[in-house]
Amino acid sequence: MQLILKKYKSIVFDCDGVVLNSNVVKTEAYFRTAKNLGATDAQAQALVDYHVKLGGISRYHKFEWYLREVINEPVTEQAVQALLDEFAGELEVGLMECAVAEGLVDLRSATPQANWMILSGGDQQEIRALFAKRDLAKYFDGGLFGSPDNKDTVLSREKLNGNLQLPALFIGDSKYDFEAATRAGLDFVFLSDWTEVADWQDYCQKNHIHVCSNVNQLNSYA
User: Fold this and answer.
1) Which domain holds residue 121?
2) Is 147 found in the same domain as 68?
3) CB 34, CB 62: distance < 8 Å
4) How far apart are CA 159 and CA 165, in angstroms?
5) Beta-ladder partners of 119
6) 99 — alpha (psi -120 to 50), left (phi > 0) or beta?
7) What pLDDT score does 131 carry?
8) Is residue 40 a contact partner of residue 50, using CB atoms and an 8 Å limit?
9) Using CA atoms, how far apart are residues 176 and 188, in angstroms rounded to an integer?
10) Which residues contact residue 74 at a Cβ distance below 8 angstroms, ignoring those fewer than 6 apart?
């Protein structure tokens, strides 16, 4: 794929590990959430390992799996909500302090033809509040989207309503990002600097994925 950013009508960004250096923040928050609610170290680590394995997938799914498969408790709305609330509290400080991708403002200036969207596995209300507080929402005129809707659902819906227009580019750092982009007919770029995908080099080579180190490097294609 020849990457020419000016040809895209829409550019979709994953949040964690792409726009924000927040993958480590979230991984640590999963561990502390489980521990705070009575888990052993092994149980908390199992949740962390599942989270890393399923990068880009909603926390709702991960907590349901944790209740069912790790601590063998009923997957009730109350039990999931307790985990969600604890997790949100653990995240709040870290997300306000983590680094924003260098070159983001320059890239926005270089792609005036494209509407920008955030598409995250994180909680949608949380992302919208965070981006407002950090004065980042203004760059994403196409909207900020997250769970409980998964990425496939959002991409399909936004294409249908005309907000996401092709040709479009998805910029992500997980296997799920690539898979969702492919299913929706979007081009894809993998950002490697902050990814938690251990075998990303082999995966990207096998799937012929264009790789950039970070957002700043994307500016060379603008």
Assistant:
1) 5-21+99-221
2) no
3) no
4) 6
5) 145
6) beta
7) 97
8) no
9) 11
10) 67
Same-domain check for residues 135 and 195? yes
- Per-residue pLDDT reduced to its tens digit, 24-70: 898 999 999 999 999 999 999 999 999 988 877 888 999 999 999 99
Residue 121 and residue 92 share a domain: no
CA distances from 9 to 12, 111, 145, 156, 220 (A): 10, 9, 18, 16, 18
Record the tokens describing residue 11, joined without a space: 């550019």
Q: At what angle do helices 151-160 and 175-184 cross, to 10 degrees?
A: 30
Burial class (CB in 10 A: 0-12, 13-18, 19+), 208: exposed
Q: What is the DSSP letter of 39?
A: -
Element (H, E) at 206: helix 200-206
Residue 52, Cβ neighbours under 10 Å: how many?
16
Residues 77 and 142 in one domain: no
Question: In this predicted model, what pLDDT tens digit does every residue of 153-202 receive, in sequence order?
Answer: 999 999 999 999 999 999 999 999 999 999 999 999 999 999 989 999 99
